[in-house]
Amino acid sequence: MSGSRRTFLRQVTGAALTAAATRTVLAADGPSCLTPGDGAKRVGLATVGIGGQGTGDTEAALKVPGVELVGVADVYDGRLVRAREVFCPGLVTTRDYRELLARKDVDAVIVATPDHWHAQVAIEAMEAGKDVYVEKPMVHAIEEGQKLVDAQKRTGRICQVGSQRVSSLVYRKAKQLLAAGAIGPLNLVEAWWVRNSAIGAWQYTIPADASPATVDWSRFLGSAPQRAFDATRLFRWRNYSDYGTGVAGDLFVHLFSGLHFVTGAVGPTRVMATGGLRHWKDGRDANDVLLGLFEYPKTAAHPEFTLSLKVDFADGAGESEGFRFVGPDGVLSIGWDGVTLQKQAKDAAPGYTIDTFPKSAQEAFLKDYKAKYPDAKSELRAVTEERFEKPDGYSDHDEHLANFIDAVRTRKPVVEDALFGFRAAGPALLCNKSAAERRPIDWNPETLKAV
Prior knowledge:
Layout: H1 3-21, E1 43-48, H2 52-61, E2 67-73, H3 77-86, E3 92-94, H4 98-101, E4 108-111, H5 118-127, E5 131-135, H6 142-155, E6 159-162, H7 169-179, E7 188-194, H8 217-221, H9 231-235, H10 246-263, E8 270-276, E9 289-296, E10 305-312, E11 320-327, E12 330-334, E13 338-344, H11 359-372, E14 383-389, H12 396-410, H13 418-437, E15 441-444, E16 449-450
Parallel strand pairs: 1-2, 1-4, 2-3, 4-5, 5-6, 7-10
Antiparallel strand pairs: 7-11, 8-9, 8-15, 9-10, 11-12, 12-13, 13-14, 15-16
C-alpha cells in the first residue's frame, strides 16, 4: 500500500481514535481499556503486534489493577479491528508502532512482533523512555543481543523478556529442591517439547481478506529480504528464517530460560545440534525436528553437567514438554502441572562380578564381602515419589506479566532482564547455526560471543 493511502486512512480513522484513547471508554459488550484498581498507580500500556501472543500478553497485563491499554499496532488491519472489539472501541490503533512510542500516556510497551522486529522495536521503545516486555526469543540474530543489553543499561528502562517459566511457582519449587540437594550433584538434564498437530506446527489460519490493501507488507518485511506479497509468510512467519527462529528460538529458548533459572547457570560453553525437515514439507525452511547437546562447565552455582534437548513436530505420542534433572540420589521432573521428585533406595554394597574367578578366589572374596557388607540385599529396591502440583487456575504467564507491571511501578529488577534473555536466546539461536553447518559451536555466556 502506498504511503499516501496509509496517510489517508490514518487521517479518517486516527483522529477520533486518538482523542478517545486518553480517557476510559466503556464498551457495550466488552471490558474497559482501564482495569479498575483501588489506588493502584496507572500504567499506560501499548502493544506492538496484536496477533495471538500479543493478545494473550495484553490480556494477562490487563488483569493487573490500574493498567490501561492505550493503543495497539499491527500491520494487518483485521487485527486492529479485532483489538477494538476485544478490548474497547476507544483504543488507538495504527500500523506504525512509532506513533505509540511518541505518546506521553504510554508508560510500557509489549513487543509481540515477528522475531526479526524484536530488537529494533524494543530498543526504540526504551530510547523513547518506555519500559519494555519483549517476547522470546529476545533477538532474531546473535549480533542484535549485545545491542539490546546495552540499550537497557544505557536507558535505565525496565526490560522483561517473555519466557514465563522464570516466574513460575513450579520452577521455583524445582529450584528449591535442587538447591537443597534432593537429587545430589546434578550431572544430566533432559528436556523435550513434542507436538503432533497442525496448529502446534504453526499452520495458522490465513484470513480471507489478507491482501496488499489490508496489510502493510513493506512494514512487515522491514529488514528482511524484499519479496512480493505473500500472506502465508505473514500469518505463518515462524516457518521462515527471514522472520522467525524456528523451533530453537520458539521452544528451545523456553527450556534454556527454565533451566538457567532452576540451576543458576548462565549458559553452556558448547552447542551441538542436528535436525531436519521431516514431516511439514509445506514450503517452510524451519526444521520440524531438532536435537541438541550442550556442555555446562562447573561454576559456583552448579556442578558440571550435560543438557539434552529435543523438539519434534510430528511425534505420534501427542503433545508434551518437560524436564528431567538427574543426579545420583534421584530424578527431579518438571511437567505442565508440577514437580515430581523420584528416588530409589540404593544398597551400600557395590555388588560383584566373580563368576570367572577360580572357586577358591570366589569363596575368599565372598567371605570378605559379607563381612564388610553384612546388610547387603538382593531383593527389589523401593522407589519413593513426592509430587508437588500447582493450584487450579494458576498461570505462570499471568504472573510473569504481573511481575513486569510491578517492576514498572516500583523500578525493582525483573526476573528476566535483557542479559538473562540473551543468555537463553544465544545458545538457542546457535542451534540453528550448528545444525546448518554440521559442527559444534563454542559460546561464551560471559562475553556473549560465539566462536
